Known about the structure:
There is one protein chain. Helices cover 48% and strands 9% of the residues. By secondary structure, the chain is α/β, with parallel strands linked by helices. The chain has three domains: 76-242, Substrate Binding Domain Of Dnak, Chain:A, Domain 2 (Up-down Bundle); 248-397, Rossmann fold (3-Layer(aba) Sandwich); 415-652, Rossmann fold (3-Layer(aba) Sandwich), CATH 3.40.50.2030. A six-stranded parallel β-sheet has the order 12-11-10-13-14-15, sandwiched between helices. The chain has a five-stranded parallel β-sheet with strand order 5-4-6-7-8, with helices on both faces. The longest helix has 35 residues, at 82-116. Bound molecules: FE(4)-NI(1)-S(5) cluster.
Amino acid sequence: MASDKPIKKQVSASERTICEATAQMLEKARRDGVLIDLDRGYEMKPCPIGVESACCKHCYMGPCRLNPRDPYKKVGVCGATIDTIMARNFARNVATGSASHNDHGMHILKLFKDIVDGHVKDFAIEDTIKLERVAKSVGIEVEGKEVYEVAKELCVELDKTFSNVDGEMPFTKRVPKATLEQWRKDGIVPRGAMREVMELMSRTHIGCDQEYNNLTKQISRTALADGWGGSMVATELSDIMFGTPSPTVAEVNMGVLKEEYVNIIVHGHEPAMFEGMLAAVSDQFYIDEAKARGAAGINLVGMCCSGAEMMSRHGVPHAGNFGSTEAVIVTGAVDAMVVDIQCIKQGLSSVAKCYDTHLITTNPRCHIEGATHIEFEERDPRDCTDQILAKAISRFGSRSMPVEIPKQVQKGVHGFTHEYIEYMLGGTFRGSYSPLNDNIINGRIRGVAGVVGCTNPKVQQDSVHVALVRELIKNDVLVLQTGCSQIALAKAGFLTPEAAPLAGPGLSEVCETVGMPPVLGLGSCVDNTRILIAASAMVEAGGLGNSLADLPVAGCAPEWMSEKALAIGQYFVASGVYTVFGIGFPTIKGTKFHDLLFNGLEQQGYGKWGSASDPIEIAHMMIAHIDKKRKELGIDKARERTLVDMSDRRDIA
Ligand code: NFS
């Protein structure tokens, strides 16, 4: 059964993860002689030059390696300095991350067009109110028009997100005026995503852009083409087609698997295939088939980002985040794992083989050696989903190995959106961000933090996410979450109104009054754009400055690993947000490029990067920034008064 050579030195499973279910499966994998990512990550010793981005392989005169300890001592064969090399490497990371999200967004738009043109019958326009809202936000007149007329115009408009060669992307109309003016002044308003990614790649070729300040402008432009472009298109159109989420109770962790059911996990990023599976599993024919093979029924659960999206929209149970996708197969209970694109580890293939699980790829852009490919086609979703169901049911009927499912399962409230936050605070008729701003101005809420992103086997899974968020809410910082970070906190029980007492006195008072958790889950990684829209609404509501950079907010991806995370971080920074990354950062301290990202951009009126590995240190870096912004806004005194009031009140009680 062994999938690889066992590792030489092992640390205890609980040192690799704070998720007890994942630790239990890691122990089982070791007993079974199967090597999974959490141990592979421990064994891998990263290249000390690569980890600081001090090498260049953009041409074949090298690869050139510079000395990270003395980065200005040497240059590449072409004469490239360390600043050029790091900036070009960072640029290519951001280009890849932005390309991934834009590719996803383009496919969502294609599906929307196919629905509007009548080529796809199995999906429809679900949320017409959101359709009108989004159309209006990009300047489309909706009065007196039919739904499909508006939708058609929206297709034409949003297509520019990707295909524009000039002009400004449609969703930049949503950017606060002062922020947009700064982008215009610096020439970084994104035009079309394909143009931005192409230009950035071209400028990183040997002998092209060799001035790190100039290159950083195009890095920002390409990242903005992600956040205000492809990712925003993906979120908004997914809401229109599949329904805008609203708070819903859902279960998280491996205990959502059921031994007596046919278990199918869907893991990836594009919601269409998952929506297709959701429709297919309620087909009585397959339920009867499953029962005929001795199962109690079919159990469909999600993982990672499309899992987070389906949990938010439909309350579909979620089995775990990126760090648990191999471990969950070790249960032996997964009859099929169905994947589409992004964050799908190739290692799943060998682990699935060890446990006789069907690993099924469904997207033409992502095949995996050793997996079965059954292509999903939106025009005929049942062709793919029926084959998957048949395979999963047949595997259940011939399960040959013992099943061990961890017991852990945690209920939480998911599915917050920009629209719901507005409604929750302002009511149906006067939906508004003013109550949120008022609570920030009076100091009950100190500020807002976005905590997002991956897990990374370089650190104990989930530990940095959970400790960081605990510290933030304790200090009255309202936390917005997406993706794998949201799942980490959901497993730890923070996404329920009952978690309010974990917050500081001001935040817990607001949570108790409104009946909301101190940690709001917004969905998948592309749904980080919900944070951009919420932040823009805060600026518009007034009292917290004119640009996004004025807000008392901060962001963090404490256990990041992907290039998409870097693109997200850079679009937050370029939008005006202080963004801290855990784990490490691919630049060398003391270099000019590092200083530009970590200081210079803020001096130019943008946000800036920060980096630290200790969660408490990260929390206090974010809080210090929030306090700095409060001071600049002149609302620092209000908070001091509020807190005195609160403790006075407790003394009286
Ligand atoms: Ni986003 Fe990281 Fe992947 Fe989602 Fe999870 S790993 S950058 S959170 S699943 S995209």
